[in-house]
Design goal:
Radius of gyration: 39 Å
Distance between the termini: 125 Å
Largest sheet: 7 strands, mixed
Shape: globular
Number of helices: 6
Oligomer: single chain
Order of helices and strands: HHEEEHEHEHEEEEH
Number of strands: 9
Length: about 220
């Protein structure tokens, strides 16, 4: 018994093993990506909402008095015309020249097509072509030229002084551009390729930039009919 007690006395108590802590698992990359995507979508949604609630900024239209004004010219029939002749109707006005190779014919064609799209409503609109090249665009020449376009189109020309005055009123730039390799008298005209819509009182209403289609022009005119 004593031997057994001595043996028990020398036996060390057994310690309960402590389980080792499990290693920390890294956050799954897939989960990180999902959270990032959700954050981006949330930010974009917030931006979209704010934009939808804000008015769209459009460039301000020129003041009504800034474009247009009285003029005295001659139509393609040789009759004097002032802006009073056109009052009471909308005027669709384009500045160009009959020797223009492509831009002017395209614009005049689109003007005529736009009136065709409007149908009977187009009777309230007078298409007007004002030359920036009075030296060559005589009434007789313009009469022949306008046969290729809308039958109600009115061509206007005048003296260099009269032309300069109407160009200034409509804020239209025009200058001779010599033709490279041509004769001394050969030239084209650099000019502002804008179509103006003027109101029944002769005041500026809107304009159509170069490249506007007939559909665009018709849609723009219809707003004021």
């Amino acid at each position: 018994m004593m031997a057994k007690a001595a043996k028990d006395k020398t036996r060390r108590p057994q310690k309960t093993p402590v389980p080792e802590a499990a290693p920390e698992k890294p956050f799954p990359r897939r989960r990180v990506g999902q959270i990032a995507v959700l954050l981006v979508v949330g930010v974009l949604a917030m931006i979209g909402y704010r934009i939808s609630q804000s008015p769209i900024d459009e460039p301000p239209a020129p003041p009504a008095a800034a474009i247009g004004g009285p003029f005295t010219l001659v139509d393609h029939q040789g009759r004097p015309r002032t802006w009073d002749y056109f009052k009471g109707r909308l005027m669709l006005v384009y500045f160009g020249f009959t020797f223009c190779p492509d831009v002017c014919p395209t614009a005049l064609t689109d003007m005529g097509d736009a009136l065709g799209i409007l149908g009977e409503a187009a009777d309230k609109v007078t298409p007007v072509f004002i030359t920036v090249d009075p030296d060559r665009d005589t009434p007789e020449h313009m009469k022949e030229y306008l046969k290729f376009f809308h039958p109600r189109m009115v061509g206007l020309t005048g003296t260099p002084e009269q032309t300069a005055a109407v160009l200034k009123s409509y804020k239209v730039f025009a200058a001779k551009a010599p033709v490279e390799g041509g004769d001394a008298g050969d030239y084209l005209m650099d000019h502002t390729p804008i179509i103006y819509l003027m109101g029944p009182d002769g005041a500026y209403m809107t304009h159509f930039s170069h490249g506007a289609s007939a559909e665009d022009i018709a849609k723009g005119i219809r707003k004021f009919l």
